[in-house]
Amino acid sequence: MEITQNQREYWQKNLNITAILMGVWFVVTFVVAYFARDLNFTFFGWPFSFWAASQGSLIVYVVIIWFYARYMNELDQEHGLAEIEED
Amino acid sequence: MSGTTSEGTGGVFSASSNAAFKQQLNKVYAWYTGGFMIFVVALAILEQMGLPRNWIGYLFLAATVLLYAGIGVMSRTNDAAEYYVAGRRVPAIYNGMATGADWMSAASFIGMAGTLYLTGYGGLAFIMGWTGGYCLVALFLAPYLRKFGQFTVPDFLGARYDGNLPRFIGILAAILCSFTYVVAQIYGVGLITTRLTGVAFELGIFLGLGGILVCSFLGGMRAVTWTQVAQYIILIIAYLIPVVWLSVKQTGMPIPQAIYGYQLEKVTAKEKELIDDPKEKEVIAAFKARADVFAEKLKDVKGALAADKEAAEKKIAELKEANAEPAQMAAAEKALAAIPKDEESAKKAWTKGKSDNEARARPLGGMPRHATQYAGDPNGDAKAKDTLTPRGATSWPWCFV
Question: Does the predicted model carry a pTM greater than 0.90?
Answer without folding.
Answer: no
